[in-house]
Amino acid sequence: MKKNHVLLVLMQELRLSSWLPTTNREVKIKGWESLDVILFSGDAYVDHPSFGPAVIGRILESLGLRVAIVPQPNVNDNLQDFEKLGRPNLFFGVTGGCMDPMISNYTASKRKRDKDAYTPNGDIGFRPDYATTVYANILKEKWPDVPVLIGGIEASLRRVTHYDYWSDKLMPTILENSKADMLVYGMGEQPLREIVRLLAKGVPFSSLKTIKQTAVLLTKDEKIPKNSNWEDVDIASHEACLSNKKTFASNFKIIEQESNKLAARRIFQKVGEKTLMINPPFPTMTEKEIDASFDLPYTRLPHPKYNKRGPIPAFEMIKHSINIHRGCFGGCSFCTISAHQGKFIASRSQESILKEVDTVANMPDFKGYLSDIGGPSANMYKMKGKIQSICDKCVAPSCISPVICSNLDTSHKPLTELYKAVDSHPKVKKSFIGSGIRHDMLVPEFNKNADAQELDDYTEEVMTKHVSGRLKVAPEHTSDPVLKLMRKPSFTYFHKFKERFDKINLKHQLKLQLIPYFISNHPACELEDMANLAAETKDMGFQLEQVQGFTPSPMTVATVIYYSGYHPYTLKKVFTPKTKKDKDEQHRFFFWYKNDNRSWIKNTLTKLGRPDLLKVLLPAKTEKWRKNKPGKPKHTFDDAVPFNQRTNKLKYKKRK
């Protein structure tokens, strides 16, 4: 019995040693006397390449460092979590988690969420508001002479003067309030490798001022570090932004353009008596570099400490999925992906992807179904500029708005071949595409430089083999002025895509549903635009489900407009719904089919002078309406013409 007990303990310790240590006991199991880096994270620890803290930990480990992680440290007790592992030899690393903690904690209407997807059982209360700042302040108080490096999406998107929606204030760089010594923005692998390389050479942390993709606050006594390879640009000070909203808006054009350039300038901003210095980003990761990040020895599982606390929702969603690339060249005005991951695509090799597919396929709970083969946008894999020198000079925040760049190679052939290679694995019954697909890139009328047959082949491949009943796409709106500001194409192209979708549906008798995503309350959107959206989508046969209100998050054009009232590129005024009443009314049009809204819709459309929309949304006679079903009329009125004629006769007023 005693021998069996010892064997069981040894097996448990061996199993624990597969993860980065989270306690002193686990550090001892590793046989370490001290730690080089200690990471603090607002998320539970999931050792998986889709979770940033795990990626950073494994990168540092691969460089020969002894790394531990303290996931979701308690900030409401005696703060022992910040002391239990002692002092690291090099630095503390801090991240708020895979999402901005304020978005994790609150809805668009600023209500406290009842679930946290990155916590076991979805429990709330384990991640403080503004987690990066809270953690960094505690560490600097307890260990004032140990460098604190912050990163992750919260730090990345708050690296410069930004509007914070939840406090309704303009905030300085997060370096100021967090008291951190350095900020790594974007995906952190490249700057971290350089930081460790220089520290290993004996360079003090305090001297690391010119590492790409980092930001630091310089005191008034510090000299500006020289770098003859970089050009510099000054933006308006934090104090100037506080006193003038138009000045704040004008800053953002520079910030966005520099963050999306291959050869960016170094940005300087005065913050009181200090100077914020944001160094240019690293070049887009090569195939070899991104493969190396995904090929690290992840267990692909949550830490065993959570076994009795319940599943982690975010992990359950992605545990049988494969991320094939990073970055997004869409540049949508409301989205933060390009601000964090960049607009240039970093794609993994097919060999690396298939290696991960094999790993997932051999997991004990794998039933043969991959939940996703995708990325920020599913169909941007291997896409890049045809002539690199043209991309080198580009300052455009989007490669596909207002039109698709003639230098962009949008071939979907590598993706189609990848899907077929994945499906050839003997243990894979079906692979789904769960990431959002850019439907506009599959429309030849919009993607004019692409091979139309190749686009149709890809669409048919996805619909026939990689969709489980529903295909989700994101037209976001129907109003041309709103879509232009969003950097999204005209809704006309959604109609074109739907024609192709219906054609393939009928050809293969699939009975798939097309599920469009829409946003209300976006800058430039007026109440009449939402009424038009409701009527036009109803006329197409949709009863909307995937809808959301615009949430202003740092580092987006839309958020700058929301706060300042000015477009950062034109400095012209833009209307934005801001009051609770305006937001609720716009959102209400999504749900025209609810009886509670009928009277309100009737009164509102009467005041707007739009009886034409009233007839569509609330017809006087009995309406026989049914959801979008392929090959059948989407809805009929007892006095209406057939659907295929009605769509040509109904006209929706578009604001010019």
Short summary:
The protein is of the alpha/beta class and 656 residues long.
Tell me about this structure.
The protein has 656 residues and is α/β, with parallel strands linked by helices. Among the domains are: 18-278, no CATH class; 510-656, no CATH class. It is 36% helix and 14% strand. Strands 3-1-4-5-8-9-12-11-10 form a nine-stranded mixed β-sheet, sandwiched between helices. A three-stranded parallel β-sheet has the order 22-23-24. Strands 2-13 form a two-stranded antiparallel sheet. Helix 20 (527-539) links the parallel strand 23 (513-520) and strand 24 (547-549). Mean pLDDT is 91; it is low at 3-11 and 630-652.
Strand order of the largest sheet: 3-1-4-5-8-9-12-11-10
Number of strands: 26
Distance between the termini: 82 Å
Helix content: 25-40%
**Rg measurement, Å:** 26 Å
**Number of helical regions:** 25
The structure class reads alpha/beta
Largest sheet: 9 strands, mixed
Mean pLDDT: 91
Question: What fraction strand?
Answer: 5-15%
Shape, please?
Answer: globular
pLDDT < 50 runs, ≥5 residues: 3-11, 630-652
Layout: helices, strands, pairs:
Elements: H1 2-16, H2 24-29, E1 37-41, E2 46-47, H3 52-62, E3 67-71, E4 91-95, H4 101-105, H5 131-142, E5 148-151, H6 152-157, E6 162-164, E7 169-171, H7 174-178, E8 182-184, H8 189-200, E9 214-218, E10 232-234, H9 238-243, H10 245-259, E11 266-271, E12 274-278, H11 287-294, E13 301-302, H12 313-318, E14 321-323, E15 325-326, H13 337-341, E16 346-347, H14 350-361, E17 369-370, E18 372-374, E19 384-385, H15 388-393, E20 408-409, H16 413-423, E21 430-431, H17 452-465, E22 470-476, H18 480-486, H19 492-508, E23 513-520, H20 527-539, E24 547-549, H21 557-564, H22 580-588, H23 595-607, H24 611-617, E25 623-625, E26 635-637, H25 643-649
Parallel strand pairs: 1-3, 1-4, 4-5, 5-8, 10-11, 14-18, 17-21, 22-23, 23-24
Antiparallel strand pairs: 2-13, 6-7, 8-9, 9-12, 11-12, 15-16, 19-20, 25-26
Helix pairs in contact: 3-8, 10-21, 17-19, 20-24, 23-24
